[in-house]
Fold this protein.
Amino acid sequence: MRIRTVKAVAAVMVSVVLATAACGTTDDEGSADTTTTAGGEETTTTAEETTTTEEETTTTEEETTTTSEPDDDDAEARAEAALITAEDFPADFESTPSTDGTDTEIFDECAPEVDVTEETVAEASSDDFTTGDLGANEGTQYSADSAVLSSEDVATEIVDLFGDDAFAACASEGVKEELDLAATGELEAVGDLAVGDQAAGLQGAFTVTDPETNEDVVLDVAVAAIRTGDLVTILGGIGVGQILDSDLIAELADTIAERQEG
């Protein structure tokens, strides 16, 4: 499970405030060179060895299919069903697929006692829903990530983190370090939200100064972790030069809680 919105602060500000173009040419060339460099004879030998291994493990996979796959499929379906969709937003919002990879760095740094990756049974992510023009420092974006955890106790422990001041302070410092800019501001923990079985969140604002123009851009951040049983959905919003819509956030949170109930 990840906190996409908190980690997205750095990406949004680097791309929007500094207008930094993505540079992936070198990596692409590197991948091509690696493929070309591989020798034909060596590849053939490896393929033969891999085939033997697959044949040996086929029986094991068939034996475990009945006991594991139905549970995993059900967990994945539950995680996907809890997500927000384009129909949950006003008409002026645009929906784009999320390109973020799985990111547990905030948990790893600020709550190492909880192995989120190990405890996650299944997870799913929504699209990004945006209104306004982030490139002009005037827009908002919302997203959600859901996960079925290994137990209700683990899910409760994860949501508890969002209501913890130490976790909020650590997350704030992590965001500032990722920004690598002159940033001020803090995230505050908000506990005991009346949504679902349990809910807590982080909220705050960061002011970032563009080193080239010396202009300040304010980033409004809100994150809510909503739990129903062993299922947790993290709803996040970022406002660039705009304040997030608190009524919309409340509606989205209620919608997620209803969908988690099934």
Remarks:
- The chain is about 45% helix and 25% strand.
- Residues 201 and 224 are 4 Å apart (CA to CA).
- The chain has two domains: 4-25+74-261, 33-65.
